[in-house]
Structures are given as structure tokens and as C-alpha cells.
Amino acid sequence: MTFFIALFILLMQFLWKWIDELVGKGLEWYIIGELMTHASITLIPMALPLAILLSSIMTFGNLGENYELVALKSAGISLFRIMAPLIFFIGAISIGAFYFSNYVMPFTYLKMSALLFDIRQQSPELSIKEGAFFNDIDGYSIKVAKKDYKTGLLREIMVYDHTSRKGNTQVTIADSGYMNMSADERFLILDLYNGYTYLEADEEKKRRSIRTYPFRRDAFEEQNLMFQMDANNLDRTDEGLFKKHYQVLNLEQLNYSVDSLNEKYSSRQTMFSNNLLRTNYFKKESKNEVADSIAFSYVKVADATLFDSLMHSIDIKKKEQLVTLAQNFARSAKGYIESTEKDLNGQRKWIRKHEIEWHRKFTLSFACIVLFFIGAPLGAIIRKGGLGMPVVVSVFFFILYYLISITGEKFVREDIWPAYQGMWLSSAILLPLGIYLTYKAANDSVILSIDTQLQAIKKLFKKKENNGLSGS
Question: Would you say 369 and 56 are in contact if contact means Cβ atoms under 8 Å apart?
Fold first, then answer.
């Protein structure tokens, strides 16, 4: 029961996340049902720890509330002996969750990713967002500043025509407009009002003119643009396009991908170092007047050992040329370093994502055991069953677990911590807490009672007062 409750909550979260992509696209019921089925399967590893936490609190809370734990303990059965069958049961669930994450999840996520991609391509007029470029139409890039979701009116529209494959040579700007599908759903019609179309010269005209380039601006009150679309039936994309994504790989494939990416990263670093040394630190310019003048000046002042002496031996004009050349070299080296840094950072982030996914297959399974050792002793301590107090306590601890997990994963993504530290942070923090709670419950310690905490605080203050009197 708790598992299906947790799965339903997570599924509703998924649905609200993608609701804008699903509503109003005329999807058949079985398409939405297929998507929900795939999403439910991918959420199972996340729902299991929450379900185990809630059910363990409820089970031991009911046993404690009905004094069944007291009866068992009075018969000489310890809490560890009572928990032993459930420990084996939860261990089996954890092992099953691991194999599920390693073999079933990649296949299901592949299916869901391909289906989500196809749904997002359906009825593209509904996918346009305010202030973002829409690039789902081949050869065009469309940006809308504001969109009235009730009337469908678009404001401040910009349409970049890239069908000529020559850059931004044709741009259309309109004050407002509407976007709709044609009756046969073969064309996307964009009705534009009060705007301009800017057309630059093509490459042939640019070559004929040296200083000036032909340019044309057409004003219009109304203009209709038609974009040919595929049929509105949901075309299924080849799933092979998504097979290299890290979330559709199992452990063996992730190991292979991480090794390949690390090797590629190392070779890119080596190539960058060699190129930097060869082409930037030690420049070799052939038949360069400035370089020749430097060599001539160095021979002329062969007895000089300082760079300043060499520079002073060159006349002002040559010196200006030399400084300009050095600045150009420095700018070129800086641009090369910055572009390579972005490339290396991108490769490093991609490696980190693979490492995160590798550890996630273990951490979500191990979380079932960790949260069981928190939930079972908590239920024995608070002695409350049902869906009241157990739900509050379980939600609190699950949110704590989730926040710690997200924080550790963020540190890994930002390359602050290694992957094993960030991904196992939540388990490293909550597992000692579970051991402590289990120990307290086994010894019948009342740690959640306000009276007990007040008594402990009073004893602490009395001890300090006695120490102060004895010292005086």
C-alpha cells in the first residue's frame, strides 16, 4: 500500500512537470498510457525507499501501540530478533532493486525518452515558449517575446530563415501574429502583422562589391509564412538515437563509456599542451620583417644579455610592429586557451554525469536498507500506527535524505567532490543515525519524549552548578 502511495505521488510530480507537453496535442489514450507506464517503471527505485521507510514506521508503530512489542520483549525476544526476518526481506528487496536499476531501468528509460521526444515534436505551435528560441522547424529559428495562452496571440516575433545555409541573411520581425496548423495538418501557418523583412546580399553579390553590400528591407502590414510539417500522426523516432545517453546504460556499459571518455579527455589535454608549446610559446615565423629585424638586432648587440637592451636597440617603428605582433600572438593564445577550456569542461561534466549514474544504481538500492533501520526503530519508539504520525515522520526523513542526496550530487556535477563522496553522502550521514536509533529502541530508550529531554537538560545544568560550587 505504501509503495503504491509513494509511486502515485512521484507519478503526479512527473505529470505536472510534463503537462504542458501533453495537453492539447490530440494524443491517443494509449500513447499517454504508454508514457505513464514507462514513467512509473522509472520511478520505482525512488519510490521503494520512501515506501520502506513509511511501512516500517507504520508496522512497528502498530506493534508498539498495541503493546505487542512489549509482549515479545517480555518473552525474551530482543528487537534485533524481531527485526531479523524483515532485515532479510529488505535485503532481498535491495538486491532486486539493484538488478532492476541495472537491467530494466535503462531499457524503460530508452523507451520513455524516445516517446517524450516524439510527443514534444507533436503540434509544435503549442511548444513555443516566451523569450526562448524555437528550433523544431528545420531551417528556421523563431523567438516570441510574449504569448497570450488564452487567445494564442504572439507578440514581438522574430523569424530567422536558415534554409539557404548561409547564416542570418534573412530575418523577419513582426509586432504580433498567430500560429496555427492547416486543416490537413501538413503546414504550420504563421500570420504576421506590422513588421519588416530584412534580406542581406548573398555571397556572389558580396564578391562583386568591395565597400558596399546590397541590402533590402520590406515593410508589411500582413504576411503569411507556411512551414511544411509531417503528418500530425505520432511518428516514432528511432530509439538508437538515444542509446548513448548515460541514463540508458547498465554498469558494464557505463564502465566502458567512462574509460573511453577519460581516455579522450587525456588525449585532448595532451594535444592542447603540445599545440600550446609548439604554436604559442615558441613562435616560428618565416620571412617576417619584424622577426628578421629582431635577429639582425640580436646579432648587432650580441654582447647584450638583457631583454631591455635588445628592445632599446630596435628603432621606434620596428618596436611598434613588434609590440603589435606580440599582442596578436597573445590574443590568439588566449582565445585558444578559452575555447579549449570550455571544451575540456564540457567533457569533464559529461564524465561526471556517467559516474553519477554509476553510483546511483547502488545508492538507491542501499537507501532501502538505510531507511529501514531508521523507520523500524522510530516506529518502536514513537509507538504510533496508522497514516498520521508515521507519514509526518517518514516525509521529514525522506526530504532530509533527498536534500542531502541532491547536495552531494550537485557537488559532484560542479567537480568539487569525487563521485563516490557526493553520491554516498546521504548514506554516510543517515546510516549512523539509523544504527543509533536501532540501539536506542533495542534498549527501550525514550529519546523523543519532551520530559526526557527536559530532565537531561536539568541534569546538565545541575552538574555545571555543582562543579562551580566545588571550584569556589
Answer: no
The H or E element spanning position 227 is strand 215-228
A 10 A CB-CB count for 244 gives 10
Phi-psi region of 234 (alpha: psi -120 to 50; beta: other; left: phi over 0): beta
Distance of alpha carbon 154 from the chain centroid: 30
Question: 54: which 3 cell numbers?
Answer: 513509511
Residue 195 CA to residue 145 CA, distance in Å, equals: 15
With b for 16 or more beta-carbon neighbours within 10 A and e for fewer, the 68-102 pattern comes to ebeeebeeeeebeebbeebeeebeebbeebbebbb
Residue 157's φ and ψ, nearest 5 degrees, are -95, 135
pLDDT of residue 98: 93
Q: What tens digit of pLDDT does each residue of 126-155 get?
A: 567 777 787 777 778 888 888 887 777 888
CA atoms of 81 and 322, how far apart (whole Å): 85
Choose among 86, 44, 78: nearest CA to 375: 86
Tell which residue, 35, 46, 63, has the closest CA to residue 6. Answer: 46
In this structure, the number of other CB atoms found within 10 A of the CB of residue 66 comes to 12
pTM of the complete model beyond 0.85: no
CB 171 within 8 A of CB 197: yes
